[in-house]
Each structure stands twice: as structure tokens, then as C-alpha cells.
Predict the 3D structure of the following.
Amino acid sequence: MTAPLVVATEDRLREIVREVVAAALADQRPSEPAPVLLRRADLARACSVSPRIVDSWRARGCPVVRVGSDPRFELAAVVEWLRAGGAT
């Protein structure tokens, strides 16, 4: 049995490829964007505190995300932790 011959314009072929690729990638896209992870100095600046204060927060259990061996902080998680009394 031979495959049927399909004739399509170049534009239509591009459209078909875009649709197929978009459908294939739809399941792989995260439902939410990845959070922005801040370095120690960036978190200190965002919270208007010194980097030493951030160090004391870490010692008290401030939420930390490791990127390799480097600590990073998600601002929303840290603010929630602070509001819950984490720094006291």
C-alpha cells in the first residue's frame, strides 16, 4: 500500500507544523511561571534590611531554595514566613 499524496502550499504546511508543535508542547508548559529566586543581597535590598539580618533569618528557619550549593530566596515565601512570625 502506498501513502496518499498530499499537496499543500508552503504557508499551509507551516501552519500545520505550528499547530502540531503547539499541541505537543501544551502538555509540557508549566501552569504557573517559575518564581524569581533572589540572592542574599537582593533579598536584603528587597526587604530593606542588611544581609546580616538575612543570615539571622536563615538561622531561624527562613525558607531557602538551593541552586547547586548556593542559597536563593523566593520573596513571596519569605514575606509569608515573616508575617507568620518566623523572624521572632
Notes: The domain at 37-83 is CATH 1.10.10.10 (Arc Repressor Mutant, subunit A). The radius of gyration is 24 Å. The longest strand covers residues 70-74. Residues 10-26 form the longest helix (17 residues).
